[in-house]
Design a protein that fits this description.
The chain is α/β, with parallel strands linked by helices. It contains 14 helices and twelve strands. The chain folds into two domains: 153 residues, Aspartate Aminotransferase, domain 1 (Alpha-Beta Complex), CATH 3.90.1150.10; 239 residues, Aspartate Aminotransferase, domain 2. Helix 6 links the parallel strand 3 and strand 4.
Length: 409
Amino acid sequence: MAPVSTMAGSSALSSRLTAVQPSATYGMLARAAALKKSGRDVISLSAGEPDFDTPANIREAAVAAIHAGHTRYPPVAGIPQLRAAIVSKFERENGLRYDVSETMVSSGGKQVIFNALMATLNPGDEVVIPAPYWVSYPEMALLCGGQPVIVPTRMENGFKLTEQDLRAAFTPRTKWLILNSPSNPSGAVYSRQDLQVIVNVLRDHPHVLVMSDDIYEHLVFDQQQFHTIAQLGEDIQRRTLMVNGVSKAYAMTGWRIGYGAGPEWLLGAMEKIQGQQTSGASSISQYAALEALTGTQDFISLARKSYEQRRDLVVSMLNAVPGFTCIKPEGAFYAYPSCAGLIGKKTPGGIRIADDEVFANELLQQTGVAAVHGSAFGLGPHIRVAFAADTELLTQACQRIKTFCSSLT
């Protein structure tokens, strides 16, 4: 068979791909890895994952599952024990009741979101996404045939949606509103009062579904209580898809287990899609996740305390950087400082800092510190600094950032 030419291969690709951008997060990770491979001293603050090991009891549960022979195809929607544990988790931690049929397990929270969008979006349907947003939300909406509607938030409002902005964004074509609290990348946390404002708007638009991405639920700081929008009324719960997983709370990013809960009609459609896509998530990972949800929870509070201490260090140091303004994130493990005061300045080598992407690239090249430019998350000029690293590395990184910024003229 004759090889397909590069041009012919490109023409064979789906037209949907032309509007989709590769992940800026993975792009920065790749550039940082290449620089490190060349021998440079690199500190990567671009990865959105805990730096802790998965707790021992969870790892041991996975080994036990292997020895017990739990290595065959699992049910598409998840093993019954884990789905029951998910039901218990929502009732215990969030005061929300679900039937097992209203849950499912996927290969990461990303697949839960993709399944839901694929199951519901028709061409032209709109997905309202507050900015800054996790980089995959708009791209997944596009891949599933929808149209992302980006609603910028403001730093002075803590990067949270306002009633006025949300009302202006909704149209008869709106299918979904995506909420992520605590937020990647801003660390914003919606209080119950904040969520009530959103609920008041939603009740005027009963055709809009809500996707509540709560993956950072357990990383809320300053003794705040976590709230999720489905808690604000049965009518809202019936139109909300809860998205969660074990990756952030239990340091299990590589295990690839996410889960969802919501109305049975939606979960059934999502299961149908997953059945034709990947089938069930890894059986071994599901037994590890079962232990995560039902075993000791001591790890969560210890990790949260560590992240909070790191946050305080990083925010303090970043606010001492010339040209930076950094509000204190209320959750997750990201700081999102503005670098507006540096746009237009030049490096000692004469390179003009035209925007936050140039800033992030020059920061990496000149100092070896990897951070993701904020415009990739829909709102610049900012950078996202992940503080999921030990304090020594964070201190070194912030010192390098300050030295670099002080050199700009």
